[in-house]
Design a protein that fits this description.
Blueprint lengths: L1 H5 L1 H10 L8 H38 L3 E6 L4 E2 L3 H4 L1 H9 L4 E7 L1 E8 L2 E10 L4 H4 L6 E4 L10 E5 H7 L6 E6 H13 L5 H4 L1 H8 L6 E3 L2 E3 L2 H13 L7 H16 L8 H15 L3 H15 L3 E9 L10 E4 H8 L11 E6 L8 H8 L15 E6 H4 L1 H39 L1 H9 L4 H32 L1 H10 L7 H4 L9 H27 L3 H6 L2
Parallel strand pairs: 5-12, 7-11
Antiparallel strand pairs: 1-2, 1-13, 1-14, 3-13, 4-5, 4-8, 6-11, 7-12, 8-11, 9-10
């Protein structure tokens, strides 16, 4: 009370806020609740959005490596072979680098998953058995069963809950997988056998290879063939579409091409080389289309490597995020993709997980420093192999941008709530200033300065803004603490705002003191400004006119 008596503006502000001397006046209570609800809604929504972003990020990072090291031949991605890159040794070098939690080979692909109820396209990925650093992020998402594949040689898998539901599968059931790449190869074979033998049906080519040695000139114990004839054969071979040739035709064309190329410049053909050419030409002429088509169809059995995998686990992945639908042991995945041609097999790349994915430091430069140089040209890779490093932030850049934009837009839209509350408070203050127009005029006549008059309403704004902001924080904490109970209550009447099926997680929340303080402070400032505007108008009135008015 002593403080109030010493400050006229504060004393009158308190009196105007509670004119009936009750605990709270109705107008003051409405203003407080308006500010409090605005602050509460903003804090609750932003906390849930922040929690959702963190939860989804944790889910994504559970099955997404922080870095992927891969190679390309300049046009497409290629597998890492143990012979060319010694990827096992590279994995061991990466594991001991600072800030690296784990490194493991990557083997993944697409396949058709089939059961008795239907067939869908799925993404599968390999897991190294007993690799705890690879398994530990996935374990919290496990709903049923286990991720334990034993020694990794059994035909087993773990599938997502969404895939299991789509195919009507349960623990212990078997799912039939057919790699997509194999289907493409099968389609190419069937498209090829619809056409006749390209070499036999090309009369110009058959005539060129069968009459090559006609008119040849003897020299140095051999025969020199006219260069234009050799160039014609090479040109005709290059005109063929390689994927349309049967295997016997490919072998013959390679023989012709090698012999023609090695005798450019007038080098004579030896007797053995001439015989090899003539035998190859006779072999093409004697090819039987039905037999060649039979060989091509038989080769499909080697291309297509479908597997039946027993389901040992079901895990819950985020429904709105791309991720593997099926996990299987690495040895099984290599066999499915045809990568098990060596002791360690081929892999698609090397995955690296950091101890702190958000603070990578200079790890990318350190990884580049230890990568072997595979840029030299080879028969298999004429342009050599080039390394590429893909961080997870680049892979999910669009997703991060989407979440950030959603938070900004949500913050912008919900801030309108506080703005509306501020306008309501401004209207209340205008009403109160008009009601007390004569009282303010008396104060002005007694010597109150415009600053004192503005102070009365400014203090009202400070009190309402501070108490409303504090009350809003308290309400927000209560709502966040009991969010699951509130969700259950709303779900019981058919108004579930956060269905579990859509996200695969319960309502998350991020308790960020900075967010709490920022929203409370912004609401406080808005209310204070809304109170000062009508006070400034009233403080400029003529006291004599105000006292004479009714």
């Amino acid at each position: 009370m002593k403080i109030l008596r010493r400050n006229l503006s504060l004393m009158l502000a308190v009196r105007y806020l509670n004119p009936l001397r009750t605990l709270f006046s109705i107008i003051t209570l409405i203003c407080l609740l308006g500010v409090a609800l605005g602050v509460m809604v903003l804090i609750v929504v932003l906390s849930v959005m922040g929690g959702l972003q963190k939860e989804m990020e944790d889910k994504v990072l559970a099955f997404t490596p922080h870095y992927v090291l891969m190679q390309s031949d300049g046009m497409k991605r290629i597998a890492l072979s143990q012979e060319r890159t010694d990827w096992e040794n590279l994995v061991e070098q990466l594991r001991v680098m600072p800030n690296v939690a784990s490194a493991y080979p990557q083997v993944e692909g697409q396949a058709f998953a089939q059961s008795d109820t239907g067939r869908i396209m799925v993404q599968f990925a390999a897991i190294q058995p007993h690799n705890d650093s690879q398994l530990s992020p996935l374990l919290p998402m496990l709903k049923e069963g286990t991720f334990d594949f034993g020694e990794g040689f059994d035909q087993e898998c773990v599938i997502s809950f969404k895939t299991a539901t789509s195919l009507g599968l349960q623990l212990g059931d078997e799912v039939h997988l057919t790699p997509v790449g194999s289907i493409d190869e099968v389609a190419a074979v069937y498209a090829m056998i619809q056409n006749p033998l390209l070499t036999q049906s090309n009369e110009e080519f058959m005539g060129a290879v069968s009459t090559l040695f006609e008119g040849a000139t003897p020299a140095n114990g051999g025969e020199v063939v006219a260069q234009e004839k050799l160039e014609k054969v090479v040109s005709l071979i290059r005109s063929f579409k390689y994927d349309k040739l049967r295997q016997s035709e490919k072998d013959a064309c390679e023989t012709f091409y090698d012999l023609a190329s090695s005798h450019a410049g007038g080098l004579p053909f030896t007797a053995e080389e001439k015989k090899s050419w003539q035998d190859t030409a006779a072999g093409i002429a004697a090819l039987d289309r039905d037999k060649e088509d039979g060989k091509a169809v038989k080769s499909i059995n080697e291309m297509v490597m479908p597997v039946d995998l027993r389901i040992v686990g079901i895990y819950q992945a985020p429904e709105n995020m791309d991720g593997p639908n099926v996990y299987m042991p690495m040895s099984v995945a290599q066999e499915v993709l045809g990568y098990s041609n060596e002791a360690a097999g081929n892999v698609m790349g090397i995955c690296v997980r950091l101890k702190n994915a958000h603070e990578p430091g200079d790890i990318e430069q350190k990884m580049l420093a230890i990568l072997p140089d595979n840029s030299a040209s080879t028969d298999e890779l004429p342009l050599g192999a080039m390394w590429h490093i893909a961080p997870w932030t680049t892979t999910f850049a669009k997703w991060h941008e989407l979440i950030a934009n959603e938070r900004i837009m949500m913050n912008f839209v919900l801030s309108a709530i506080n703005l509306i509350a501020s306008f309501c408070i401004m209207a209340v203050m205008f009403t109160m200033s008009i009601q007390r127009k004569r009282e303010i005029a008396v104060l002005q006549a007694l010597g109150a300065t415009p600053r004192k008059i503005i102070g009365i309403f400014a203090w009202q704004g400070v009190i309402i803004g501070f108490l409303g902001a504090v009350l809003g924080i308290i309400l927000a904490l209560l709502v966040l603490y009991y969010r699951l109970e509130i969700q259950a209550a709303l779900a019981s009447i058919g108004m579930d705002p956060f269905p579990m099926e859509a996200h695969g997680i319960t309502i998350p929340a991020e308790y960020d003191p900075v967010t709490f303080a920022r929203q409370a402070f912004s609401a406080f400032i808005m209310v204070v400004i809304a109170s000062i505007v009508p006070a400034f108008v009233v403080s400029r009135q003529d006291p004599a006119k105000a006292l004479r008015s009714n």
